[in-house]
Amino acid sequence: MTTTQKPKQPGRRTPAPARTLANLGAVAALAAAGVALSGCGLLPDLTSAGADGGGWRESSSAVEAGVSPVLFLGDSVAAGQAVPLKEALAAGGAKFVDATSVGGGNLVGPNAQATWKDLPGELAQAAGGVVVYQVTTYDWGTGAQQRRAYERLADQAAAVDAELVLVTMPPIEPDDFYRPHIDELDGAADAARTVAESAEHVEFLDASAVWGDRYRRERDGAVERSTDGIHTCPQGAARFTDWLLDELAASHPGFTPADSDTWANTGWSSDERFHGC
C-alpha cells in the first residue's frame, strides 16, 4: 500500500482520510447488537500487544520509522481510547504500552505526584519511540503550572530518546465536579501548544478534528460519547485511533497504519471500560 506523506504542520491537522472511516461504522453496529468477534483469521501474524506478546510480531518498518514502541499516557478517558489503539498498532506491527490511569494520570493538579513517581519506569519502555500524552480531565492549574509540567515531560521523554506528542482531550459536558475547573482545562490545550512550539522533539495535536469543539454524544447517527459527558464509546475511540494513526504516519515516513478492517471488529468493543454507551 502506498501512502502519501503529508507536510508536518503545527496545531490543528486535517481529519483522517475517508479511506478507512467507512469501516468504523461497523463497530457501533456490533456494539449495539452485543456481538464480539474474535478476529480469527484477520491477523494471521499478529495478536493484540498484550503482556505476553503471544504471536504478535514487531514490524521492522515501524521500528525504523520511530513509531515502535508507542507509550500512551492519560486518565480514564484515554484508557478507553487505548483499547482499540492497542489493536490497531499491533495490526500495524508497532509495540504499544498502555500507561493510562483510571482516576489519575495527570501531570499537574490533584495528586499529580503519583504520576511523576511512576513515570520514569513507564518512559523507559518508550525508548526510541513515541510518547503520547492526552491532556487529562485533572490537569488543573495555572497556565504556568501546566507549561512546566509539560516541559518536564518533554525533557524526560527526550532523555530516553523518545518523541513526545501532546494531544488535546475530548471536550466534556462538565458536572458539578468539573465545572469549577473548566477554564483551567481549556487553558491546558494552550499550554501544550506553547510547549510544542518551543521544542523540536514535541508535537501538538488538536483532536477537535475528531471530537469537534464541544461535547456531542452522537455523530453521523453513531454513539461516540458516554452518557456521563466525559468518556468515549467504542465508535468514538475507533475514530480517534484512526485519526491518531494517520497523524503518526504523516510525521513518520515509512510507517503505514493497518487498514481499520483488520482491527475494528476484533471484539474489543465489549471491553468493560466502555460504559454509558
Describe the structure in your own words.
- There is one protein chain.
- α1 (18-33) packs antiparallel against α8 and α3 crosses α8.
- The strands form 2 sheets. Strands 2-1-3-4-5 form a 5-stranded parallel sheet, with helices on both faces.
- It is built from 8 helices and 7 strands, in the order ααβαβαβαβαβαββα.
- The protein has helices spanning 18-33, 60-64, 76-91, 112-124, 143-159, 182-197, 208-211, 234-251, and strands at 70-73, 96-98, 130-134, 163-167, 202-205, 218-219, 222-223.
In total, the number of domains comes to 1
- CATH-scheme architecture: 3-Layer(aba) Sandwich
Helix-strand topology string: HHEHEHEHEHEHEEH
User: If strands are numbered along the chain, what order do they take across the biggest sheet?
Assistant: 2-1-3-4-5
Distance between the termini: 34 Å
For the report, how would you describe the main beta sheet?
Answer: 5 strands, parallel
Q: Output the structural class.
A: alpha/beta
CATH-wise, what's the superfamily? SGNH hydrolase
CATH class category label: Alpha Beta
- What percentage of the residues does DSSP assign to strands (E)? 5-15%
Overall mean confidence score, pLDDT: 83
Please estimate the helix content.
25-40%
Number of strands: 7
The coarse overall form would be globular
**What is the number of helices?**
8
